[in-house]
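Why do we bother with holo predictions? Because pocket geometry can differ from the apo form. Keep that in mind while you read this record for flavin mononucleotide.
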Amino acid sequence: MAAASGPAACAPWRPAFQSHICKMPSPEFVFSTVARNEQGRCVPRARYCGFRGFFGELQLHQEAEKELKQQEKEHDKDAPTNPPVFESDMPTITTDVRMEKVENVASSGGAVEAVFWIKEVMTQWRIKGKAFVIGGSPEEKEEREAREEVKKGMRMRDAGGTAVGGEWSWEREITMYFANHTPVMRGSFKYPPPGRPKSEVQSDQTLHMGEDVYDLHDPVARKHFRVVVIRPEEVERLDLSQYGNPKRWKWVFVDADEVGDKGTVVKEDGQRGRWQEIEIWP
Ligand SMILES: Cc1cc2nc3c(=O)[nH]c(=O)nc-3n(C[C@H](O)[C@H](O)[C@H](O)COP(=O)(O)O)c2cc1C
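The structure, written out:
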């Protein structure tokens, strides 16, 4: 992959957000999308999802690493895992392409909001931005476009230096996400169509519940497996840790075009800009 074109440095909200997330025993958040009802009106949709880290920075479980090493030799001659050359401030989730949230993302131009309530530090984080769904075939135009958009939020870890550890690939990254699920969870991508009535006749015999999936390239499960990448545009932190003295901050990502400040912003490939921090009334 060519060099990432994302922001030059870590977002200013990231260190605090990350330190808070680490305190959650099981990081889950409300993921909101925009849908259209039968009358064509915009309606909100929300559901819980598991936070799967920041794109490019996946922390592989020991078991996943072992399985990747065992299986990837056949599929990938170079390496079982990607070299850790990228980082980003883009939270990810994994999902099934047949679920409504994927359609919501596609039909709304990717408008999403992620809300975390981190009781351990009495803080709410709201991340508003655009989501991109990857994990389909690179032959598809939508997949290529989504990858291009994700790239805009990625940056080299070793900025200005040389990337070591070999070639990075999208396919390998998505396989790493799949491997990071337990065999039972991988099996959920072979369920009959999520959200459809159980009474409907199931003609596809490859779809069923109760199968543990060990093959990281299981064709049915991988056909449905997707990674959703959220590229934040506005982030808000509401700190309720001091009773009677709540605090609230907002960070807005201002694209280089809008800033118009030649001294501080570099505009390359459309995504470089900077975060502006404002403390607001709670
Ligand atoms: C704690 C918890 C974590 C969940 N994590 C995910 C997840 O990471 N990805 C996902 O697609 N669904 C996850 N779900 C299920 C969703 O909440 C939802 O039921 C499902 O994705 C279908 O939503 P949709 O039809 O709006 O797309 C989770 C549910 C709970 C309760």
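The pocket of flavin mononucleotide is lined by residues 28, 45, 47-50, 93-95, 99-101, 194-195 (CB under 6 Å).
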